[in-house]
From TrEMBL:
Taxonomy, superkingdom: Bacteria
Gene Ontology MF terms in the entry: acetylpyruvate hydrolase activity; metal ion binding
SUPFAM superfamilies assigned: FAH
UniProt keyword annotations, A-Z: Hydrolase, Metal-binding
Name of the protein in its database record: Fumarylacetoacetate hydrolase family protein
Organism: Paragemmobacter kunshanensis
Length: 231
């Protein structure tokens, strides 16, 4: 097949202990999934989680640099568990959801917080606040066959060595199997889809030069750095 332009390269993630790469099809994100984070954001804990997406070319790999983005003066981290799918479909029962999991990673849902506040106040879409360049740092995938199906374990974030976020994924309002099931009610999930499952409390702003260390029990850690402002 001939293309008028050079097509973009396939987005992918590294796999711990393997030479092959995990091809990424879509990045689904879940908001409002820890009660403590909902409270710090002045939201209603009874609301269902918010579903949104990020572009696959927003991925930043372990050891990479995130340019401080344009169009914000309040750039926030949100550290969370990432789930990678090996299969999918519509209307996946909760009882079968785990069978579709390929593995897990740690990730950051980077956010233009000032513009998110404006969008929320006006009832506008979130894309400008969530789906910008370099907004999806994601570490290497640890295969479920190596770490098991994760239902507990701590998500942690350090900024310049200081712990900012630390919570167990068992505290998620919507558990991983429920998230997969609910997503499949609205979208046909496919191999290569990844899901960012929501962040715990402790979100905050970063500036150029900050080093972010992200970890999840049983999963390969990730470190990224905030770079100079994007040109």
């Amino acid at each position: 097949m001939a293309f008028a332009l050079t097509p973009p390269s396939q987005a992918h993630l590294d796999i711990t202990g393997a030479d092959e790469k995990f091809p990424v099809r879509r990045i689904y994100c879940i908001g409002k999934n820890y009660v403590a984070h909902i409270i710090e954001m002045n939201a209603d804990e009874r609301d269902p989680p918010v579903i949104f997406m990020k572009p696959t070319d927003a991925i930043v790999k372990n050891g990479g640099e995130i340019p401080y983005p344009v169009f914000t003066t309040n750039f926030h981290y949100e550290c969370e568990l990432v789930v990678a799918l090996k299969s999918g479909g519509y209307n996946i029962p909760v009882s079968e959801a785990a069978s579709h999991i390929y593995g897990y990673a740690i990730g950051l849902d980077m956010t233009r917080r000032d513009h998110q506040a404006q969008a929320l106040a006006k009832g506008l879409p979130w894309e400008v606040t969530k789906g910008f360049d370099h907004s999806a740092p994601i570490g290497p995938i640890t295969r479920a066959s190596d770490c098991g199906i994760l239902t507990s374990g701590h998500v942690r974030l350090k900024v310049n060595g200081e712990v900012k976020q630390d919570a167990d994924i068992s505290l998620m309002i919507w558990k991983v199997d429920e998230i997969i099931s609910k997503l499949s009610e609205q979208h046909r999930l496919m191999p290569g889809d990844i899901i960012m499952t929501g962040t715990p409390a402790g979100v905050g702003a970063v500036v150029t030069g900050d080093v972010l260390d992200c970890s999840m029990d049983g999963v390969e850690p990730m470190q990224v750095r905030i770079g100079p402002k994007a040109a």
